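Progress report, Aim 2. The chain analyzed during this reporting quarter is listed below.
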Amino acid sequence: MRSNNEPHEKTASRSVFQLAILALLADAPMHGYELRRRLSSTIGSLRVFSYGSLYPTLRRLEAEGDISSDPAQGDPDAVPLTSRRSRVVYRLTADGKEKLADLLADSGPGSSSDEGFEIHLAFFARTSAEARLRILQSRRRCLETRREALMTALSRAAGRVDAYTDQLRRLGLESTEREVRWINELIETEKKPSEPASSEPPATAADRPHLPQE
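Predicted structure tokens for the chain:
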């Protein structure tokens, strides 16, 4: 059954993908192949994007004026070409810089989803303290809602599901509760004016498990 939120979910997923592309192009102009490699090294361990959507997304961003493209002709500013298949250099425009700033500051529902939050987190060093705090608080609300749903499901299913299903649900609940605690720590850190938050995520972030989707 198709979710009623599917159009919104697709739009949110598209926005975070655009965020990742624009953020990387803000560092330097890149060929498509190198951009794909950077996306993989930066966010591939978090979420697996369909890289078949990379070039359509680049064309969309170019059509909207957020990036420009030029044939590769020894551009000294571009990341060196690593594949003969990619002979176009993509670069951020002034409009693209404005869009990137808007996407980084976006604390809407898309920023609190598993995919959206992890992508935002990967680029927190570029995000203002105020926006980081809003995104963290949005993620916490999302997790708290998930936690309540998991607790309700466990209560209602008590004694009516097999042991393996029960343990799987308990694992989801434990993972959610652990992430809520981790998010609370990040929020407290962001709120301390005398101790600016590090641009690097805490070491515990690396151990944070991916949460099962409901």
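The first strand starts at residue 30 and ends at 31. Confidence is low (pLDDT under 50) at residues 81-85. These observations will guide the mutagenesis work planned for the next reporting period.
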